[in-house]
Amino acid sequence: MFNIILVATGGATGAVLRLILTNFSKTLFTSSIYGTLTVNILGCFLIGYLITSDFSKNINENFVKFFLIIGLLGSFTTFSAFSYEVVNLIANKKIFISLIYICISIFVCILFTYLGMLINKF
Fold it and tell me: What does each C-alpha distance from 74 to 63, 89, 98 come to in angstroms?
């Protein structure tokens, strides 16, 4: 039961943080894809970092797993918004931009997960 509370509170926190960062990016850019891309890259980096970090070994394993990784970062990153934005770009005949967005999202997020993991090896 306690793990459910950790996931729920982490999820609520991550969703609010995503909303704040996405809205902030909308003040800088005209498209919402930049906010989604930013939260996904940052979230992937943090997941990679937390999984391999000594920091997570000093904290309760359930807190790291259920609150931080599944709850907070799971709701902070957003594949559904990414999917909607790709479909919207395609519907607006912006095929090339949608392909660039897909490639950047996939490859850069994987790269940042790896960088998050790699940073703990030094």
Answer: 14, 24, 24
Rounded distance between C-alpha atoms, residue 122 and residue 119, angstroms: 6
Q: Total domain count for the chain?
A: 1
Position 64 scores a pLDDT of 87
**pLDDT tens digits, 33-75:** 888 898 999 999 998 888 887 766 678 888 988 999 889 998 9
Contact between residue 33 and residue 85 where contact means Cβ atoms under 8 Å apart: yes
Q: CA 90, 92, 97, 100: dihedral to nearest 10 degrees?
A: -20
The C-alpha angle 5, 9, 12, rounded to 5 degrees, equals 140
Q: Are 66 and 6 in contact (CB under 8 A)?
A: yes
Q: Which domain covers residue 58, as residue numbers?
A: 2-121
pLDDT at 58: 75
pTM: predicted TM-score of the whole model, two decimal places: 0.80
